[in-house]
Amino acid sequence: MPFPNHPTLPPATLPLLCALFTLPSQTSATTFLLPLPSLLTAHQHSLSTSPNPYSPHTPWSHAPICHHASGPSPAKYCAYTSNTTGALGFTAITTPARARSAASAMLAENPAGVFLSHLHGQGEGDAAWPFDVVAVPGKGMGVVATRRIARLEVLMVDRAVLVVDLDIEEEMRDRGKRINHACTPNAFVLFSPTGLSVAVKAYRDIEPGEEITISYLLLGQPHASRSSTLARWGFSCTCALCALDPAARLASDARRELIQQSAHRILGLWREGKVHDAISLAKKSAELIIEEDVWPLLTDEYALLARLSLAVGEREEAEEYGRMCWELLRDLGFLGEEEEEEEWSLEGLLEMLGGRGMYG
């Protein structure tokens, strides 16, 4: 679920995350399909180049190879390559105008600097990544921890080596999976501001030999919703949550449905002026979120409780919920480094979140 300043792609691209990781050893060769016009608009302030007058192809290493697309108004697309970007080099297939505008953003990004700063330390600091790609019974290939991975440790970083403009291709063709799905995953994916790099971060401690999983779905959905969505991708989930016995699964679904319904009920109470009742319901929803182990959903709930508490003059309680919200956003990597380094304040948090956690 995206938050302000959270570098992510639209939710519709989430099912494609499984195709982002092709890991022969510790280095991946990844293909991204990105809407480059959107990238240019979102990051225009950083998209400038400083051509080297001594090289006719700067900042690229080679002369671009170009072709005209077929169609009534054939556009010119070129392959632009840099052999000094990242461990494996970098190629972008796009129009000359977009290549000129986006070159610095595409070539200058350093994933380690984005995801492994002093604020997002590398946990135990091992030189090698703490995982291996192995055969997983019933799942094909999967990613398994080779040592203990601490909660919130960045365990994988990947940078695209090939970016293809979405105007050329409309969907991802390579569906090869390495990080498998679980409805209660132990890890999650973060995107860099440009969308060209990704990292995987642990939700909780992961033990040696344990499979690393991410969710291809939004968290908190009942079993029927999860199953129908996953069925469209051609598989049935056998994770621990989906494998619950019928009674336990019904109880879980009931809790998840109550969580989903609480927003509308809280809105109704707010409009009726029953703010204390709204606070009680929001607290109950937070308890259910914790019970269902989908604690990333607490960010909205804590922000809501902070706003409601302010509305009834409970400043101290509002500060408490606001700080919990801020700390959770920080831990999940949803804050930019500037926000992390600034002194925390309730008003600053609520202004940053805008309408999130706000009903009425």
List descriptors:
360 residues; alpha/beta; Beta-clip-like; Serine Threonine Protein Phosphatase 5, Tetratricopeptide repeat; seven-stranded mixed beta sheet; four-stranded mixed beta sheet; 10 helices; 34% helix; 17% strand; disordered N terminus
What do we call the CATH homologous superfamily of the largest domain?
Answer: SET domain
Radius of gyration (CA) equals 23 Å
Q: How many structural domains can be distinguished in the coordinates?
A: 2
Structural class: alpha/beta
Do you know the CATH topology of the largest domain? Beta-clip-like
Largest sheet: 7 strands, mixed
Q: Indicate the CATH architecture of the largest domain.
A: Beta Complex
The CA-CA distance between the termini, in Å, is: 21 Å
Indicate the mean pLDDT.
76
Q: How much strand content do the residues show?
A: 15-25%
Helix count from the secondary structure assignment: 10
How many strands?
Answer: 11
**How are helices and strands ordered from N to C?**
EHEEEHHEEEEEEEHHHHHHH
Query: What CATH first level of the largest domain would be assigned?
Result: Mainly Beta
State the low-pLDDT regions, or none.
1-53, 118-126, 168-177
Protein name: SET domain-containing protein
Keywords: Signal
InterPro entries: SET_dom, SET_dom_sf, SET_domain_protein
Pfam families: SET
